[in-house]
Amino acid sequence: MSSVTGGQTLGAPFGTWPARLYLAVSAALIVWLAVVSSQPTDDASFAAVIPILFTAPTSLLILAIPDASTAWLYAVLGASAMANAWLIDLVWRRLSSRKG
Fold it and tell me: Helix and strand tally (H, E) in the chain?
């Protein structure tokens, strides 16, 4: 598998530390959302706003679905985190491969 950055072979997907850090923070926010959402409350919770904004712009697709279920929300957040981490990985590899 060759990369877009000049035929170099890519290592493991999400092999750079910024991409892994982004995935770790995204996973922590998604777990936090699951914990907060499972607590019984009398009022509405805005806990989903933080993970949605952290994984934007791709997670904003959830706003286009009129009656999205909770499972759909978690699926979109997970896919958005993966897509954004992949882009972070590509940009980091591109910028770190530049010479002087």
Answer: 3, 0
